[in-house]
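Appendix C reproduces, verbatim, an entry submitted by the partner laboratory led by Prof. M.T., so that reviewers can inspect both the input and the predicted structure.
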Amino acid sequence: MRAHVGVVVFATSFRKWSIAMSDKDKLQRMHNRGEQDASEGNLSLPNDPLRMGFAAFFASAEQQTEWEEENKAYLEGRKHTESQNGSCFLTTACVEHAGLADDCHELVVLRSFRDNYIANLAHGPALLTEYYKVAPVLVRQIKQDQNCDAELASIFSTVTRAVALVEQRNYSEALLCYETMFTELKGKFFPV
């Protein structure tokens, strides 16, 4: 009897360890997928509630937590690749235009803001997905525009305002400042 109990305890412990390892493996795969998608320009969040529709709405709390963890691992993978590639498209374009380096104060502050504030908002992954989809097109369109210098100077002005707000820890205002600029640029330069 005692040996049987030991086997059951071992089997139960092994199953919990096995599940934990498979969860860890799944999260690592999501991280790797995020890295690959970022390098290939694929911009869709794997467990996007908007794309999933009713499945997301009716999912159990446990399933929703699992999806959130997977999305977080995926975004961490994206951030890893994007931080190596410097994927703050609009900010990078305007600071380059201003003659600043890729590791200038403005880019460092806004990348940290993106990674530590925006990415952790409930709607943050959706905001970042849209940004990575639209911003490269905006930059191309702006660089081809006859008023390129004025547009990039205007973006840089907004960037410096957003950086100042971040440094004052007024994160919601900084996000609103950047979102407003982004929305205006989409209306002006993004093909419908």
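Residues 3-19 have pLDDT under 50 and may be disordered. Additional entries are available on request from the coordinating office.
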